[in-house]
């Protein structure tokens, strides 16, 4: 993605992800953002993961919460404690109690 010939960086994409989350946009828009980042060779960062997790939780999509949390872990990113609580809350609502406890335990260690 370029604006006036300037390539957007991780921070710019993070701000877009925050706006998508804040404005409660459809989940496919966050996925499109991640795909665009991939095409532009901009790495997924913690801002993207935190906002994607938050948006998926707002939509009640537990599988996407789990997917983004796993992606963050795979990339070696550390979600903040607020995001970890969102993950565990979504997992509990989805009846994934053991996974929720693992997330909480992981958060306690950091």
Strand order of the largest sheet: 1-2
Shape: globular
Assign the structural class, choosing from mainly alpha, mainly beta, alpha/beta, alpha+beta, or little secondary structure: mainly alpha
Number of strands: 2
> pLDDT average, as an integer?
89
Please give a structural write-up.
There is one protein chain. The protein has 110 residues and is mostly helical. It contains six helices and two strands. The protein has helices spanning 10-22, 27-39, 46-58, 62-74, 81-93, 97-109, and strands at 2-3, 6-7. The longest helix has 13 residues, at 10-22. The protein starts with a strand and ends with a helix. The mean pLDDT is 89.
């Amino acid at each position: 993605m370029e604006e006036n010939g300037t390539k957007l960086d991780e921070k710019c994409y993070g701000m877009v992800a925050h706006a998508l989350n804040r404005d409660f946009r459809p989940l496919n828009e966050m996925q499109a953002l991640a795909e665009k980042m991939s095409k532009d060779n901009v790495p997924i960062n913690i801002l993207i993961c935190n906002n994607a997790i938050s948006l998926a939780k707002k939509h009640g999509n537990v599988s996407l919460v789990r997917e983004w949390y796993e992606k963050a872990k795979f990339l070696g990113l550390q979600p903040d404690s607020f995001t970890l609580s969102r993950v565990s809350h979504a997992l509990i609502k989805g009846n994934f109690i053991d996974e929720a406890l693992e997330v909480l335990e992981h958060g306690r260690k950091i």
